[in-house]
């Protein structure tokens, strides 16, 4: 946490810090080979945790509106951290975690790691959609409208009445668009650089979401809903 705050103090945005933590090797003559080796060494479980932790801070800046979602992300992060700590090698990949729980018959339980992976992936998808709409609409839509679009498109179909009601109650507390963008950009960044960071981060995160979705679809777990 202190390291993250120190980096923010140097002008780096939350997105830039996440990019650096998830980044591939620097371009070079053997860039493709380096990237392949890097992908083989990476842990998709650790990458999901990394993105999700940064997501918690971003959701915090949106305000009380997404308190329920932020708490849900925190709970799921902790669950995955606990299982990874038990055996970092065995549970290095999301596929390994889901496969084991499917074989044990525990994948659909409320406190399963499979559900944690599912909801973290959905939350990241929500954030990705929010950022893309934020860039594409420029000054045409308020942050409230953008969050509403992202929520309707990504999370609403899977939320039960409790989560949906909590979202509606606090919907009017979303901050102004300019304030949120200022947080995302950091203190030493132009909008064009911020837009570039979003595109790079999305490209890095996409394979992670694809792995999670592939194993969930394989075992018909991708359409589980909250209560």
From TrEMBL:
Residue segments, region Disordered: 1-41
Compositionally biased intervals (Basic and acidic residues): 1-19
Pfam families: GLTP
GO cellular component labels: cytosol; membrane
InterPro entries given in the database record: GLTP_sf, Glycolipid_transfer_prot_dom
One Gene Ontology molecular-function label: ceramide 1-phosphate transfer activity
Coiled coil regions in record: none
Domain Glycolipid transfer protein residues, every copy: 45-184
Protein name: Glycolipid transfer protein domain-containing protein
Protein source organism: Oryza meyeriana var. granulata
């Amino acid at each position: 946490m202190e390291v993250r705050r120190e980096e923010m103090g140097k002008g780096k945005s939350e997105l830039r810090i996440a990019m650096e933590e998830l980044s591939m090797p620097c371009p070079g003559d053997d860039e493709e080979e380096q990237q392949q080796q890097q992908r083989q060494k990476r842990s998709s479980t650790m990458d999901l945790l990394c993105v999700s932790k940064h997501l918690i801070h971003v959701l915090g800046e949106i305000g009380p509106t997404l308190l329920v979602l932020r708490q849900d992300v925190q709970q799921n992060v902790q669950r995955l951290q606990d299982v990874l700590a038990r055996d970092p090698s065995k549970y290095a990949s999301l596929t390994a975690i889901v496969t084991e729980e499917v074989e044990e018959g525990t994948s659909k339980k409320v406190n399963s790691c499979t559900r944690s992976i599912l909801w973290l992936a959905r939350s990241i998808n929500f954030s990705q959609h929010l950022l893309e709409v934020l860039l594409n609409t420029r000054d045409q839509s308020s942050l409230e409208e953008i969050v509403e679009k992202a929520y309707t498109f990504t999370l609403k179909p899977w939320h039960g009445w409790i989560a949906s009601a909590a979202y509606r109650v606090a919907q009017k507390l979303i901050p102004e668009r300019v304030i949120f963008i200022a947080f995302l950009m950091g203190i030493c960044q132009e909008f064009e650089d911020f837009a570039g960071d979003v595109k790079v981060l999305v490209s890095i995160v996409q394979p992670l979401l694809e792995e999670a979705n592939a194993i969930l679809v394989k075992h018909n777990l991708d359409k589980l809903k909250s209560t």
